[in-house]
Amino acid sequence: MHKILFLSFYDLLILARTHLIAIKIIALVICLFPLLGYLGNHAQKTISDTSPSDQPHGPTVSFDAHCADATATMITEHYDFSLKDHNSEIVAKCQGNNITLTYRNDTALKYLAKKGFLTADHPDLSVRVNKQVDATLTPSNTSLVNMLSRAYFPFALLVFSISISATRLLVYEDRISLRSDELIGSTYSPQAYFISKAITTAIYALLAVFALALLAISLASYLIYVAYYDSALVRESFSVFLASSSPTFFDIYAQALSLVIFTYFIPLLFSIFCISIPVSILLASYFYFSPAPERFFFYRPFVIFLLCAIPLISLGVQHPEDIAFIPFLNLSLLLPHLDTALAPRIYFSNMLFICIFIILYVLYAAHRIKQLQK
Amino acid sequence: MIDIKSLSFRYTKKSPPVLNDISCTIPANSVIGVLGANGSGKTTFLKLLCRLLHPTSGAISSAHSITYSYLPSAGSISPQLTVKEFLTLRNARKLSQADLLTVEEFKLSDLLSKKATTLSFGQQQRVRLCASMLSQADAYLLDEPTTGLDIEQNMIFKSLIRNFATNKPILLATHNPAEILTLCTHLLVINTGAIGYYGTLDGFMDGFQSFDDAWFSHASLENTASNA
User: pTM here?
Assistant: First the structure.
């Protein structure tokens, strides 16, 4: 009996250590995001520092809640732009779910036209701006497409870390080390091996139940977040915080962390438990019971490629802050793959796909930056 | 003492037999060199002894229950474990002071806290050998154990084998004549699944100046017998 417990213990030890790779990467991302958030919001601080008298006091225009999604996206983009440019004659304010644009004079209208708000494509909006119709705007992030687009970025991040760990623990490590002839032939019987695997599986099943509970919480939180919060609101509160007090570095860090939790981490949890882990375990299980589990390493890049192409497909509904993910995506791509234990051929195929991803994301980033600079 | 009677094995019902009608008695206090060409069935024979494989027919018996320590020719240490953890896992007990002395003999004391991924192939082989020696088994089944060992480690291994061989049978699958001459008391030559020679080393070498002469002489006798 003690041999079975021994084997189970080491089995779990190996699994835990395998998971450490993913934990380290996630920890790295969590630690670096606040800093990124701080840097990303540095521009917001400049406009928040301007006194109220400097703000334009023109007529207030709010946009209709029921305008087309494309229009709503443009408004959001414009909102981000105006915050970064304190000389702009347009100021956006976000109250609850409503975005209000305030402009000073006709120059502002010209600016709106330049930004594409007043075009023939959106005659309704054009009329409403000119007539200063007071209406409300419902952020478009309640749409399913937008929700998914937000979830896919952290999802892609996790595919690189969690899935690789999960597949390793089920396929690579297990098959080559603990299930070796050396152990079963001399110290442990095949029966002891299977019992220990049952124990390990049971423990992991308990963890899975815990994960499901977390999933329910994170899913609920995410839905609440999608329904009631707009990332712009969160970011604005952050900039106000920076302007209204003399924050220490730790204050900024704490505030940025809360920003990250609302904007990124809840969708991250959602994608971990809903998509990444089940997909990984399903794939790994399939290859574990296949005659040649090592073949998984050949298929893995293709799977990752497909999964990570989805964020690019949803490009049209992304927010400008998505650019922040790009370095982390690349980093998370690279770290788990830098494994010298892999055969050169597999290593090469992995690196090839990493290069393709990097190129795609760089192109995407360039596209977004170009959009913002218009 | 281990009795092997009419041992035969085939991997599937339709495949040809890997071992065919092997019968021999393995005495305690012996080092038996298991010889044969590649694919002759040496590894299969060792796996049958430690019950990793089950014989198609025949039986392996002993006066009392025997525990084996099996060292495959191609094994690996989990890259997630340190040397100390692997030794502990391999033997399912904490390392005692006596164990640590053996670890010292294998010059592994400095490597105890290192993970397998940081070790060279030769060092990993030393760790596996050491783990096998620590196992306190009743019989040792070593499949090409000195692969990757340097000269010094080879010598250490031979001296350790001699110490262990005082009261336990050791079956040593090898292709190295020097190992056979310095370590083995008996030889089991497997020729395409059947016993080509089984007996003492002295009997094998009787009338021959070198191992090579004896080997080729026995091989030619076997060929003559099989042709007849």
Answer: 0.56
In-domain check, residue B73 = yes
Residue of A nearest to B81 (CA): A14
CA distance A279 to B105: 48
pLDDT of residue B136: 83
Q: Does A179 touch chain B (CB under 8 A)?
A: no
One domain for residues A350 and A276: yes
In whole angstroms, give the CA distance from residue B139 to residue B30.
10
Q: What order of strands is seen across the sheet that includes strand B68-71?
A: B68-71, B139-143, B170-173, B31-35, B186-191, B194-200
Domain-embedded: residue A228 = yes
**Both structure tokens of A298:** 């050949």
Which of A165, A187, A340 is the best mutation test for B, with the most CBs of B within 10 A? A187
Of the candidates B71, B117, B137, which has its C-beta nearest A182's C-beta? Answer: B71
Question: What gap in Å lies between CA A329 and CA A179, rounded to an integer?
Answer: 34
**A98-120 confidence digits (pLDDT tens):** 445 554 444 445 555 555 554 44
Q: Do A119 and A150 fall within a single domain? A: no
Name the 3-class secondary structure at A105. Answer: coil
Q: A329 is written with which tokens?
A: 């995506």
User: Which of helix, strand or coil describes residue B194?
Assistant: strand
Domain count, chain B: 1
Q: CB distance B80–A185 less than 8 Å?
A: no
How many angstroms separate the CA atoms of B19 and A55, rounded?
93
Residue of B50, B68, B80, B140 to mutate when probing chain A, most A C-beta within 10 A: B80
Query: Considering only alpha carbons, which residue of chain B is nearest residue A191?
Result: B52
Same domain, A206 and A84: no
Q: Which of A6, A14, A180 sits opposite B80 (nearest CB)?
A: A14
Question: To which residue do tokens 């009996």 refer?
Answer: A1
Would an 8 Å CB–CB cutoff place A6 in contact with chain B?
yes
**A185 contact B CB<8A:** yes
Number of domains in chain A: 2
Interface ipTM > 0.85: no
**Distance (Å) from the alpha carbon of B132 to chain A's nearest alpha carbon:** 9
Q: Containing domain of residue A28, as a range?
A: 2-41+146-373
Contact yes or no for A177 and B76 at CB 8 A: yes
Element (H, E) at A190: helix A190-228
B172 SS3 class: strand
Q: What are the mean pLDDT values of chain B's consecutive 10-residue runs (228 residues total)?
A: 90 87 88 88 90 88 86 80 90 88 88 87 86 87 85 81 75 88 89 88 86 79 58
**Together in a domain, A160 and A136:** no
Query: How far, in Å, CA of B204 to CA of B181, rounded?
Result: 11
Question: B31 in helix, strand or coil?
Answer: strand
Contact indicator for A149, A271 with CB cutoff of 8 Å: no
Q: Would residue A9 count as lying in a domain?
A: yes
B69 domain-assigned: yes
B58 sits in which H/E element: strand B57-62
pLDDT grade for A295, boundaries at 50, 70 and 90: low
Whether residue A161 is found in the same domain as residue A281: yes
Q: List B4's β-bridge partners, or say none.
A: B24, B60
Nearest by CB: B76 against A10, A180, A189: A180
